[in-house]
Structure formats: C-alpha cells, structure tokens
What does this fold into?
Amino acid sequence: MAARPRIRALLGGALAAGVAVIGAMAMIPDANAAASTLGAAAAQSGRYFGTAIAASRLGDSAYTTIAAREFNMVTAENEMKPDATEPQRGQFNFSSGDQIYNWATQRGMKVRGHTLAWHSQQPSWWGGISGSSLRQAMIDHINGVMAHYKGKLAYWDVVNEAYNEDGSRRNSNLQQTGNDWIEVAFRTARNADPSVKLCYNDYNIENWSYAKTQGVYRMIQDFKSRGVPIDCVGLQTHFTGGSSLPSNFQTTLSSFAALGVDVALTEVDVTNASTTQYAGLTQACMNVSRCVGITVWGVRDQDSWRSSENPLLFSGSNKKAAYTSVLNALNAAGPTTSPTGGGTQSPTPTTSPTSGGGGGAGRIVGAQSGRCVDVPNASQTNGTRVQLYDCNGQSNQQWTYTSSKQLQIYGSRCLDAAGSGNGAAVQIYSCNGQTNQQWNVNSNGTITGVQSGRCLDVWGTGNGQQIQIYDCNGQANQRFSLS
Ligand code: XIL
It folds into this structure.
C-alpha cells in the first residue's frame, strides 16, 4: 500500500521537471510488476502484511528502518494488553500503546488492537477480585480502552486464548465469571466502537482436525447464529514451541471464513524460519478470499519472544530465505484475487455531473463519521492523501463534481486513486483526465472509482482517518454524500 504513493511522489518530481510524457505514461498502474516489500506485495491482492512492534525498540533505527519499509499493519506486542493499559482500577495508561499507534499511523500503517480480555498479562488487581466484580471490571476495561482508541483501529482482538487444547473452555478467572463472558465482551466491544472489526484470537487452531480448532469453530458458529457481534478470527500461527504447519491449514481458514467472518494470521513465527512452512502458510492465506492479512510476531530473530528458535524473517538487517519465499507467494497472488470476494453490489450512478464544471463546490461528508473529506493542511502537493476531518467550510474541503466525473479541488487538483486494488490510497493530484480520477456518485450513497469499480472507504471515524478504495460492501463507512 505504501509503494504507490511513493512512486507518485517521484513522478511528481518528474512532471515538475517537464518530463510530462514519461510521467503520464507511468501513471497507468503497472499491475503486473512484482512488489519488493512485504506490505506492497500483500496490498496487490488487497491484503496487509504486519508485524508486532515493541515500544522499547522504537529507538533502534536498524529495527525501525526494516519495520517502516516492509510492513503496513502493526500490532502492539505487549503495550495494549490489560496489565499495560489499566494497571490500577479505573486508571488507564496509554503512553506506550500510543507511542506505537503514533509511530505506525504517521507512516500510513494500520493498527490492530491486542488484546482486551485474556487469562494472561492481567493487571494484578484482577487477581484480587472474582465473580460479578471481575465481570464488571472486564466490561469497564473494554469500555475504557476502546473509548481511547475509538475510530482509530482496524481490528481489536477482543478475547484471546479462551480455549483448552481439548476444545473445552480454559478455566480462567474470566471463565469463572460465567460461560457467557466471551459474548458479553464482544457485545460490550461493539457498543464501545462500532467502527472496528472485532476478533477472537487463539493459537493451535490451525489444524482443522484438532479438538481445539473445532471447539473455537463451534463458538464462532454459535455466535453467528445468535447474532453475537463478531467479525473475524485470528489464528496466531505460532509454528514454534513444537507446533508446525498442518497440511489442512487452508481448510481451516476457509471453514472459518464460510461462517461469515474474516480470518487472519496474527502472530506468525516458525522454528528456524522453515521456508516451506512460511511459503505454505502464506499460500494458504492467499488461497482464501477472506484471509485479509498476515502478521509476523516481531521483526528480526533477536526481537522474537522465542528468539532461540530464530523464527522470523530477518536476521539482523538481512532478509532470510524465508523472507523471499513469503514475498514470492504474496507477489504470485496479486493483483487478481480479492480478500473480500462476494457480496459486491453494482450501484447505479444517479447524481449527474454538473455541466461544464459550472456547479458550485460542496462537501463530501462521511455517513458514519459526519466528517468531511479534507486535504491535510490545505496542501496542494500532488500525492497528498485525503482524510476525514471536522467539516469547516474551508477550501481544502470544497469539491466540485465536474461533467467529466472528476471531483476537483482548488480548481486544478483532482481526487485521485493511487492504484486500483483494495486499500489503494486516495489522494489529490493534478487533473489529467484519466479514469483513476473519475468517480461515480451513486444512488446507494457510495462513490465508486471508474477505473477500479471500488468504493471510497475509510476504516474509522476520527479526525485524520485516511481515505482509500475498497471492495464495496454496503457498510456505512463507504457511504458519502456530496452536498
Ligand atoms: C507475548 C510477547 O511476545 C512477549 O513479549 C510477552 O512476554 C508475552 O506475550 N500469544 C499472544 C501474544 O497472544 O500476546 C503473546 O505475546 C504470545 C502468545
């Protein structure tokens, strides 16, 4: 996802230097070029590639150089867990979590929240309470943490590791508050932040014929049948500590997905970074349309929680053989497969473009957020990504829908899709008449790109949330009105 804007930035320079023809030719998306980073390679098929980040390592430039270059999704390794965020009852601390959130989003990466309710890494005061008091503490914790990150995150691991290996519920202090604790956690989470996708996350649920996998599967099936809000299942995919890639992994992913949830590989590491296992797990995800992305549990071997197994994709600053096997599998998948296949409606354009560009300028307002599509800092620089921001009537929020289906701003810049795949950035660029700058304003409230057919989309509702294009899915985060 990061690659295309960077290419655009270079092109901007070329155009300014007067090499207009080369610039215009190169602006046609080169869909078949192999990407050279994990994040860009995954983005070709609309997926992400993430890593766990430790706040304590953000001062290490060798670490941050790799992390910023390769990944486009970040999970806080420990900093958003209950012991970190609510060390004393009612006293929340987001300093380390925010450090990671800010580092990631300043680089255009998305963030996965991890985790709200878990038997491990609990604040010590949870150990002193039980029953209805602990239940209320869990609810208050979810509300407190999710309020802080409201509108900002792509996913939350609401509940982590609630199952035993035999497929029964783990007998944790949370389980002892009543068997309904998991659904209470998910219902609380949905109310706290309707914009974020809510996930159940666990390890050793990769083998379809394993009892624990079946136990979790039955819970998700039950939740879906009763309308308990759940959007995704995270398979940790720790093929370390004695585990390894099962041959039926893809069956597990597609079986969960068939229940109507997204799936993701959330904490990948592999003993000695076996290239066949890394390639196999990546391929399994690529083969399942609702497998939305892969996250490795750390950047370099030295950063791993199981560093003695050398399980990650980098050794020092060097790419390991497993890195190449993953990159190749990601590149082979793009750009034809789409992770959110099915359910796409074909909307009808209704709003007619104003003739000759004579119509007045208006705002583009997000239905979910009530916020306006805005050019940050009133920038006129080509390649500036647009965002949501409080409507203020200023010129950097004034869009004119022209007879040639452009959404023009400042008279000379156009709303422009920096690619046609899922997750491609939406930015401003000098108007050039190409189809990546043409938009249909549809009767169902969506705005779709003429080139991509995809919807204008935003993951959250807060100020600063970046706009992208994504497969149309009928949800409120894809409805915008032109007023
Ligand atoms: C691990 C971290 O990597 C370690 O730094 C910490 O000491 C313990 O937790 N499953 C999970 C992760 O969901 O949160 C765990 O992370 C690894 C297993």
